[in-house]
Specification:
With about 575 residues, the chain is α/β, with parallel strands linked by helices. The chain has three domains: about 110 residues; about 270 residues, Rossmann fold (3-Layer(aba) Sandwich); about 170 residues, Adenine-n6-DNA-methyltransferase TaqI, Chain A, domain 2. It is about 35% helix and about 20% strand. It is built from 20 helices and 24 strands. The protein has a nine-stranded mixed β-sheet, with helices on both faces. Strands 15-21-18-19 form a four-stranded antiparallel β-sheet, covered by helices on one side. Helix 1 packs across helix 2 and helix 17 packs across helix 20.
Length: about 575
C-alpha cells in the first residue's frame, strides 16, 4: 500500500457512517479536490477550506457547491449532497484534510487507482495499475496530443494521460469518478462528457464526430446492442450490421480516431466467427492491426474474462503485426485476492513495437494472419518450446488438408423431448483411450422428418472428434446399427469425420494420427476460448494430416486392429473375473 492509498483510507475511515467504502471515498474526494483547487489560487479567501472549520454543516455544503464553479467539471453529485446532509463525522474530515494539506502531503496526492483500491460491487470496474500503465505507455507523443477516452468510468487511463501532457476527453455514462480523479490530477486540458458513446456520441465538432490523435479504452465486455443502434447511426461508424458490443465499440473508436487506438478487449474478439471475423478481415485489409498483447487474468476487478490489448492504427498501414504473450512469468506476478500485476512494461512496449526480440513475442507478415483465417490469438503465433519443436517436425513432413479427405458433419441438435424415434447417443465416456467405440450410452429422441436426417446417423468407419469441452478426444465406430430407430448419433460436443467416396485415406490410420502426440498438439493449437474450449469447423478443415504411403497407412490400421483385439480380450477377462465368485452367497 503506497502513501496515496494510505492517505485515502485514513480520510475515508472518518466517514464510515456515510455508507460503504466506495460511498465514503466518493464523499472524501471532493474535499481533497477542494484543497487542490484552493492551492491553485482559484478560490476567494472565504471559500478556503480552513475557513469552513467551525461552521454549520449547511454552510459548508453551500461553500462546496460554490467551489464547483471553479472546477472543470462537476466532482460531486446530488446523491453525495444528500449523504453529506446526514454525515455526523464531516468536521474531523475537514480538519484532517487541512492538516495533511498544510503538511504538504496532498501536493502530490494521486487518486488515479482509487477504483482499483476500493473495488466493491458498487464501484465501476477497476484496472490493475500496471495494466493502465501499459495502455498509456503504448501511446506515442509523435501521433499528437489529443486523446479520446470513452467508457473511462474509473479515470485511471485519463489521469495518467493528462499527467504526462496529453489533452484528454472522457465520454462515459458514469462521469463522476473520472471527474473527481481528473480534478485531483489537473485543472485544465481535460473534459468529461456524460453520455453513451454508442447510442448518442457527444464528442462532436461541427456536427460530425471529432477525431482525436489517439484513443484509449477498456470498453464494457459482454454487451449486446439493439439492431436499431446500427440502423439509426448518423455518423457512418458501423460497417458490420451486428449486435456484438465489442465490434461496435471498436468501430466507434476507429471512427473517432485519426491515429492509434489502444483497447483492452475480450479474447473472443480475436477468434470468434461471424461479425468478429468479418471485422478482423476488414482490419487486416486496411492494414490497421499493429499489435496484440495477451494478458494474464486478474488485471480487471470483478471479471475473469480472458483479455488482450489490441493496438490499431487508422492512419498508418502496418507492414508487420506484433504478437506478445504477457501471460508469462517474465511479464506478470501474482498479487492478493486473485489479482495480478504486469512487470517490465518498457519491454512489453518495445516488443509491441517490434524493436526488441523475445521468446514471448513474434512479428509476422500479414499474409500469415490471412492463412490463419484472420485469427488474432497470440497463442497461434507465439510458440512455446514444445510448439517450436512441433513446427520443426512439420516442416519436414508432407501434409494434406483434413478437409480434402473427409466430410466434417456437425452433430445435429436432436431433442430429448417427447417427439421423434428412440436413438442412442455417443458420449465422451463411450470413447476409450485405445481401441474402438462399442457403445452409445445415452437415450435420446430424433426427428426422422428433419432435412438429411439419415446423414447424422453413425456409420461404420466414422470418426468422432470432440470439438467442445474434452477437445481432441477421438474415437472410431467399427460397427453401427442401421439408421433410424435404435441407431447411433453423435453427442453434441462432437463432429463426425466421414471419409469421402474418392478419398484414399483410411479412417483407421486417420484415427491413429489424430490420437498421436503430433495430432493432439495440432488439435490443441486450434482451440479457442477459455471457459468453454472449442475448435471451430473452419479451422478444422485446414488441419494438416501427413501424406503417407499406402504401406504406412496399412501399418497404422493394423495397430488399431491389434488394439481392438486387445480391447476384446480385456473385456472377456473382466467378464471372467466378475463371474469367478458370482455363485457364492447369492440372494
Amino acid at each position: 500500500m503506497d502513501i496515496n492509498e494510505k492517505i485515502l483510507w485514513q480520510l475515508a475511515d472518518m466517514l464510515r457512517s456515510a455508507g460503504s467504502g466506495s460511498e465514503a471515498i466518493s464523499l472524501t474526494l471532493p474535499f481533497i479536490a477542494w484543497w487542490k483547487i484552493q492551492e491553485k489560487g482559484l478560490l476567494p479567501q472565504h471559500l478556503h477550506l480552513e475557513e469552513q472549520l467551525g461552521k454549520e454543516l449547511v454552510q459548508i455544503i453551500e461553500s462546496l457547491s460554490q467551489v464547483q464553479s471553479h472546477a472543470p467539471a462537476s466532482f460531486i453529485d446530488e446523491g453525495a449532497y444528500k449523504l453529506l446532509d446526514t454525515a455526523r463525522d464531516l468536521f474531523p474530515l475537514l480538519k484532517k484534510v487541512v492538516e495533511l494539506g498544510k503538511q504538504g502531503l496532498l501536493n502530490a496526492f494521486s487518486a488515479d487507482d482509487i477504483c482499483y483500491w476500493a473495488a466493491d460491487r458498487n464501484s465501476p470496474q477497476g484496472l490493475a495499475p500496471t495494466l493502465a500503465d501499459l495502455v498509456i505507455a503504448l501511446l506515442d507523443p509523435a501521433d499528437g496530443c489529443s486523446v479520446y477516452a470513452p467508457w473511462e468510468h474509473s479515470g485511471q487511463l485519463a489521469a495518467r494521460a493528462r499527467r504526462i501532457g496529453y489533452e484528454v476527453l472522457v465520454e462515459t455514462p458514469l462521469p463522476l469518478l473520472a471527474a473527481q480523479v481528473l480534478t485531483l490530477t489537473s485543472l485544465d486540458q481535460w473534459q468529461v462528457l456524460s453520455g453513451d458513446p454508442i447510442h448518442a456520441p457527444r464528442a462532436l465538432e461541427h456536427g460530425r464526430l471529432k477525431r482525436f490523435a489517439s484513443s484509449i479504452a477498456v470498453p464494457p465486455m459482454g454487451v449486446r446492442y439493439d439492431r436499431e443502434v446500427v440502423d439509426s447511426d448518423l455518423f457512418g461508424r458501423f460497417t458490420e450490421k451486428t449486435v456484438s458490443g465489442s465490434v461496435l465499440q471498436l468501430q466507434h473508436l476507429m471512427a473517432q480516431t485519426a491515429g492509434r487506438v489502444i483497447a483492452v478487449v475480450p479474447n473472443s474478439v480475436l477468434f470468434s466467427v461471424g461479425a468478429e471475423r468479418s471485422f478482423r478481415k476488414e482490419l487486416f485489409e486496411r492494414g490497421a492491426i499493429e499489435a496484440v498483447i495477451s494478458l494474464p487474468s486478474g488485471l480487471l476487478t470483478g471479471s475473469a474474462i480472458p483479455t488482450s490489448v489490441l493496438v490499431l492504427n487508422t492512419k498508418k498501414q502496418s507492414q508487420q503485426i506484433h504478437f506478445v504473450n504477457a501471460d508469462s512469468e517474465q511479464f506478470c506476478t501474482s498479487a492478493t485476492k486473485k489479482r495480478a500485476e504486469l512487470t517490465q512494461i518498457d519491454v512489453l512496449v518495445k516488443l509491441a513495437r517490434g524493436v526488441e526480440s523475445s521468446p514471448s513475442a513474434v512479428s509476422v507478415q500479414p499474409e500469415q494472419v490471412r492463412s490463419n483465417d484472420f485469427n488474432l490469438e497470440v497463442g497461434r503465433y507465439v510458440l512455446d518450446d514444445a510448439a517450436q519443436k512441433l513446427e520443426q517436425i512439420l516442416a519436414d513432413l508432407p501434409l494434406a488438408r483434413l478437409g480434402e479427405h473427409v466430410e466434417i458433419i456437425r452433430s445435429r441438435q436432436h431433442s430429448t423431448s417427447s417427439s421423434g424415434v428412440a436413438v442412442r447417443e455417443v458420449q465422451a465416456s463411450d470413447i476409450p483411450d485405445f481401441g474402438a467405440i462399442v457403445s452409445a450410452s445415452k437415450d435420446s429422441l430424433f426427428d426422422l422428418s428433419s432435412p438429411k436426417a439419415k446423414t447424422y446417423f453413425l456409420q461404420a468407419g466414422d470418426i468422432l472428434l470432440a470439438i467442445k469441452g474434452s477437445v481432441g478426444k477421438v474415437g472410431i465406430v467399427p460397427q453401427a446399427p442401421p439408421a433410424g430407430e435404435g441407431g447411433w448419433v453423435a453427442g453434441q460436443s462432437f463432429v463426425v469425420l466421414r471419409s469421402l467416396k474418392d478419398a484414399s485415406y483410411e479412417s483407421k490410420a486417420l484415427l491413429v494420427y489424430l490420437r498421436s502426440e503430433i495430432g493432439q498438439a495440432l488439435l490443441s493449437r486450434l482451440v479457442v476460448g477459455a471457459s468453454m474450449p472449442t475448435i471451430q469447423l473452419a479451422s478444422l478443415k485446414d488441419l494438416g494430416i501427413p501424406s503417407i504411403s499406402q504401406e504406412a497407412m496399412s501399418t497404422a490400421s493394423e495397430i488399431l486392429e491389434h488394439e481392438v483385439r486387445i480391447q476384446q480380450e480385456i473385456q472377456q477377462l473382466r467378464s471372467k473375473q466378475a463371474s469367478l465368485a458370482s455363485a457364492l452367497w447369492t440372494l
